[in-house]
Specification:
Elements (H helix, E strand, L loop, with lengths): L8 H32 L39 E3 L2 E3 L9 E5 L9 H8 L4 E6 L10 H13 L3 E6 L14 H10 L11 E4 L13 H14 L5 E5 L10 H12 L5 E7 L6 H13 L4 E6 L10 H11 L2 E4 L15 E2 L2 E5 L1 H8 L4 H4 L7
Parallel strand pairs: 3-4, 3-10, 4-5, 5-6, 6-7, 7-8, 8-9, 9-10
Antiparallel strand pairs: 1-2, 11-12
Length: about 375
């Protein structure tokens, strides 16, 4: 999510108000791009999401015309990509069903891992800080987070949050800086390839110079591979994660091919830009049809920049066999408290959003399968 989830509005209030305005501009930009697309034609995986796109019904088992072959790299270990799917060492698909947890601002809330598992999740995406904007999560803390995930039989997606809105958000850092961070905590991650996905940087570009995303993402992947990381690397889209410009969609194949391990997973965040089923289906089908791995790394049931179609997000993800991770367990503030899945970190107090995500149609309880490694 593009807003900072803080322990108090006082601590991050200025950033929060600034980012709220940016989120609204994100939705406006998506509409402008969609209108232009109807006139000029698009390239890559179909170009930016069209505001009035017709639904595309291409179940994952159906053949597509001239599919791109993205086989598994035989050198990959643990979780890896095979033919556009995240798979385990067994070769079986692993479909993420889980939530985001703002660990870096709520470090004492370690019971959240057990609670998230108890409600049926197989994955938790954990917010960490490089130390550039918030207090750094050091190697010891990262190791503890991984242990908590493993103890609770969860796949652990670790993300560096300080990149959020780079180029537009004051204080946000580059993907290169995020790569520095991962290398600095590598001791906590070595040997954890069956359990950990490294999400290099959260929403690593705002709406300014989103075209820089491609080169910066490729360079960050290269640096981590050169440093010896064999993990699945997850990369967020620009435009505060929503990719309304179609930058990730158009350049995903180039980024994937640049990874010598062919072990990169793409992540889109679905908020107000994705307020119709057509937009959701169009975007996700583009990746599936190209045999490129995609996950919905964040989404909500409501937002100030529009009303995301959570029913379509969950139904389409289930139909296509791709993962989703709802935002977020608890602790939201600054006007987006409605995105809390539970009240005050109490798993027995599910909010309406929590009930929908965990227990509703195509929800976590009904569709989650525990990782084979456990």
């Amino acid at each position: 999510m593009k807003w900072e989830r803080s322990q108090s509005l006082e601590s991050h209030g200025t950033d929060l108000l600034e980012e709220q305005a940016m989120k609204v501009r994100t939705r406006f930009g998506a509409l402008v791009v969609a209108a232009s697309a109807a006139l000029i034609g698009l390239v890559g995986l179909g170009g930016p999401v069209a505001a009035q796109a017709d639904p595309v019904d291409n179940p994952v088992d159906n053949p597509v015309d001239n599919p791109v072959d993205n086989p598994v790299d035989t050198a990959a270990v643990g979780l890896r990509i095979s033919n556009g799917r995240l798979v385990e060492s067994t070769g079986n698909n692993f479909v993420m069903r889980g939530v985001n947890h703002a660990h870096t601002w709520f470090r004492s809330q370690t019971n959240a891992f057990a609670d998230i598992k108890r409600l049926g999740a197989n994955t938790v995406r954990v917010v960490l800080s490089t130390g550039d904007r918030w207090t750094r999560n050091d190697a010891a803390d990262v190791a503890n987070v991984v242990n908590l995930c493993r103890a609770n039989r969860l796949i652990c997606v670790l993300e560096a949050h300080d990149t959020t809105g780079y180029g537009e958000q004051s204080g946000a850092v580059s993907l290169s800086r995020a790569a520095d961070y991962w290398i600095s905590v590598q001791s906590a991650l070595a040997g954890q390839e069956n359990y950990v996905v490294i999400n290099i940087g959260n929403e690593p570009y705002g709406n300014n110079n989103a075209a820089g995303w491609t080169a910066d993402t490729r360079n960050a992947i290269s640096r981590l591979r050169d440093a010896g990381f064999d993990h699945t690397l997850m990369v967020d889209a620009p435009n505060w994660g929503q990719d309304w410009s179609g930058t990730m969609r158009a350049n995903a194949q180039t980024v994937f091919n640049s990874d010598p391990d062919r072990n990169t997973l793409f992540s889109v965040h679905m908020y107000g830009v994705y307020d119709t089923a057509a937009e959701v289906r169009d975007y996700l089908n583009a990746f599936v049809n190209a045999r490129l791995p995609i996950v919905v790394g964040e989404f909500g049931h409501n937002h100030s920049d529009g009303n995301p179609d959570e029913d379509a997000i969950m139904a389409t993800a289930q139909q296509l066999g791709i993962g989703y991770l709802g935002w977020s367990w608890s602790g939201n503030s600054g006007g987006v408290e409605y995105l809390d899945l539970v009240t005050n970190f109490n798993a027995s107090q599910l909010t309406s959003w929590g009930q929908r995500l965990f227990n509703g149609a195509n929800g976590i309880a009904a569709t989650s399968r525990e990782a084979d490694i456990y």
